């Protein structure tokens, strides 16, 4: 079990680097260069597939993630957030919203560690604050106690 989690962490790390590159170079990177980028990062076929899935999923989810980020930190235009931090947030929000097999605490902890590794300690605190607010908001809106009805899906951030 530990090995699976370690592999997922490695895949997440590679995917983050790919997301950063795609953000800098544009969407063509994901179509044309992603396979080569990931192949250079690892020889492990399973790890390549996992990294590609994570990067592709987070990239496809970025507009929704950006809306969510923009609403949680309205004082920051998404383009003003450091590119690494933006990529970390997009990846983590995708995992929270679209990967029910990833425990939320794991997604948050991994994102904070990635921000700390690839950015700064201040970035790790920023990422932690944004993701904590996103998760609390999702939990608060997931089930409305007074009506026992489901709220909008997490991929439609509460307004």
Question: Your description of this structure?
Answer:
The protein has two domains: 1-59; 61-159, NusB-like (N-utilizing Substance Protein B Homolog, Chain A, Orthogonal Bundle). Helix content is 74%, strand content 3%. The chain contains seven helices and two strands, in the order αααααααββ. A hairpin with a 4-residue loop joins strand 1 (143-144) and strand 2 (149-150). It is globular, with a radius of gyration of 16 Å. Residues 144-155 have low confidence and may be disordered.
Structural descriptors:
159 residues, 7 helices, single chain, mainly alpha, two-stranded antiparallel sheet, globular, N-utilizing Substance Protein B Homolog, Chain A, 2 domains, 74% helix
Please render the helix and strand layout as text:
Elements: H1 2-25, H2 28-41, H3 45-60, H4 62-72, H5 83-98, H6 104-118, H7 121-142, E1 143-144, E2 149-150
Antiparallel strand pairs: 1-2
Helix pairs in contact: 1-2, 1-3, 1-5, 2-3, 3-5, 4-5, 5-6, 5-7, 6-7
Task: Measure the end-to-end span.
Answer: 38 Å
The CATH architecture classification of the largest domain is Orthogonal Bundle
Count of β-strands = 2
Fraction of residues in helices?
Answer: over 70%
* Physical arrangement of strands within the biggest beta sheet: 1-2
Look at the helices and sheets and give the structural class: mainly alpha
CATH superfamily of the largest domain: NusB-like
What is the domain tally? 2
* Arithmetic mean pLDDT: 88
Main sheet characteristics: 2 strands, antiparallel
Rg measurement, Å: 16 Å
The H-and-E topology, N to C, reads as HHHHHHHEE
The proportion of strand residues reads under 5%
| Residue runs with pLDDT of under 50 for 5 or more positions | 144-155
- Per DSSP, the total helix count is 7
Rough shape? globular
What is the CATH topology descriptor of the largest domain? N-utilizing Substance Protein B Homolog, Chain A
What CATH first level of the largest domain would be assigned? Answer: Mainly Alpha
């Amino acid at each position: 079990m530990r090995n699976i989690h370690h592999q997922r962490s490695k895949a997440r790390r590679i995917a983050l680097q790919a997301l950063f590159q795609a953000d800098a170079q544009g969407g063509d990177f994901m179509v044309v260069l992603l396979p080569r980028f990931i192949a250079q990062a690892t020889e492990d076929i399973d790890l390549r597939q996992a990294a590609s899935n994570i990067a592709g999923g987070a990239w496809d989810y970025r507009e929704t993630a950006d809306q969510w980020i923009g609403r949680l930190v309205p004082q920051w235009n998404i383009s003003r957030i450091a590119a690494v931090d933006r990529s970390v947030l997009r990846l983590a929000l995708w995992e929270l919203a679209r990967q029910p097999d990833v425990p939320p605490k794991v997604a948050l902890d991994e994102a904070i560690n990635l921000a700390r590794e690839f950015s700064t300690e201040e970035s790790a605190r920023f990422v932690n604050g944004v993701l904590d607010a996103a998760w609390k908001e999702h939990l608060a809106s997931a089930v409305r106690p007074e009506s026992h009805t489901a709220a909008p899906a997490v991929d439609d951030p509460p307004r």
